[in-house]
Design brief:
With about 300 residues, this protein is mainly β. The protein has two helices and 18 strands. Strand 2 and strand 3 form a beta hairpin. It is globular.
């Protein structure tokens, strides 16, 4: 069974296209994925993680996402994680780049095999960046611009790591983009007065270890819980029909243990089922991520 899951994740990661995680961060935080498993037996109190992701976005956009994470272990039942995301875009003669979001989460053991993660995604921008006097589409924004509540529950069952959670916007952004504002080879949807709905997701992982190597195939279904909407030029609210629904992603994490306290990893990811429309600008054809982790 584990060989079948590994092959499926590997094949789809390279060959299929469309949208990645619900937001660049929560689904891949160190305390959500099996990344911490390398260090749990060492009883270290600190872990840092530095990474760089490259994603091929929709509408001919290249997306670069450097990030930094710090995890502090309080005891065997409690730890805290902070992640800072930088986001840069290039395509259609437009370049942007700024720090977008900071994540604050706590990891709490609530039973022998269960942990819960609770926190917030705090935007440092409003998702309303302007370039040359023109409001930019969501595809070029360095953040969704929403303050989000984050919650997840995770467990390990016979070596299978399972996590499930919600990402719920508590505020909305200040984007003012109209399709007629921007001329490019592909059309960008109007997102003036954009209102985004929550996401629910599940991550299923099966780590396979061979000496210093660990291979972690993952399946990540994400369900967007409602159609997003925008305000037209007359102030009438209109729905993005088809923005509600399921995205099914596959990825494989390949880790190499340099030493007891140092790990380098490569992640290859892509979805093979997606919603009809993704107005929030998070669409990806594929994503490649390189990261380094150290405990001390």
């Amino acid at each position: 069974m584990k060989k079948i899951v590994l092959i499926i994740a590997f094949v789809y990661s390279f060959n299929l296209f469309s949208q990645g995680c619900s937001d660049a961060g929560f689904c891949s935080l160190g305390n959500i994925t099996p990344h911490m498993d390398h260090f749990e037996a060492q009883k270290k109190l600190n872990m840092i993680r530095v990474g760089l992701s490259y994603g091929r976005g929709l509408r001919s956009i290249n997306v670069y996402n450097p990030y930094f994470e710090y995890t502090r272990v309080v005891n065997e039942n409690i730890s805290f994680n902070t992640r800072i995301n930088f986001m840069a875009h290039a395509g259609n003669e437009i370049q942007t780049g700024e720090i977008g979001d900071v994540y604050f989460t706590g990891d709490f053991k609530i039973a022998s095999k269960f942990k819960t993660v609770v926190g917030f995604k705090v935007p440092l921008q409003q998702g309303a960046r302007v370039k040359r006097g023109i409001s930019l589409p969501m595809d070029y924004q360095n953040t969704l611009g929403t303050l989000d509540f984050l919650w997840a529950l995770q467990t390990n069952l016979n070596k299978v790591h399972i996590a499930a959670g919600f990402q719920i916007p508590l505020t909305q952004n200040a984007n003012r983009f109209f399709t007629t504002d921007f001329v490019a080879s592909e059309e960008f949807p109007t997102t003036n007065g954009f209102r985004r709905n929550p996401d629910a997701w599940v991550r299923i992982s099966y780590p396979v270890t061979a000496k210093n190597w660990t291979f972690i195939p993952n399946l990540l279904p994400i369900y967007h819980l409602g159609n997003d909407s925008y305000a037209d030029e007359f102030g009438n609210r209109k729905s993005f029909v088809g923005s509600r629904g399921l995205t099914l992603n596959a990825d494989i994490q390949i880790d190499y243990k340099l030493s007891e306290n140092n790990v380098i990893g490569l992640n290859l990811a892509a979805p093979f089922m997606t919603r009809d429309i993704q107005p929030e600008g998070m669409g990806r054809k594929y994503v490649l991520t390189l990261d380094y982790r150290k405990s001390f």
